[in-house]
Amino acid sequence: MTTRIRLPRTNRFRRLAVAALVATVLSLVGAAPAMAYAPVNIVHAEHVQAGPYAVTVGFSTWPIRAMQSLDFTFMPDGGIAGKSGSLTMSGPGVKSDEHVTPLVRHPRKPDSWGLDVKALNAPGAHSFTFAIDGPQGHGQGTLTGVTVLNQPGPPLALSWTIGSLPLLGLMVLFVVAWRRTQPSRQPLTV
Question: Which class for 41: exposed (0-12), middle (13-18), buried (19 or more C-beta within 10 A)?
Answer without folding.
Answer: exposed
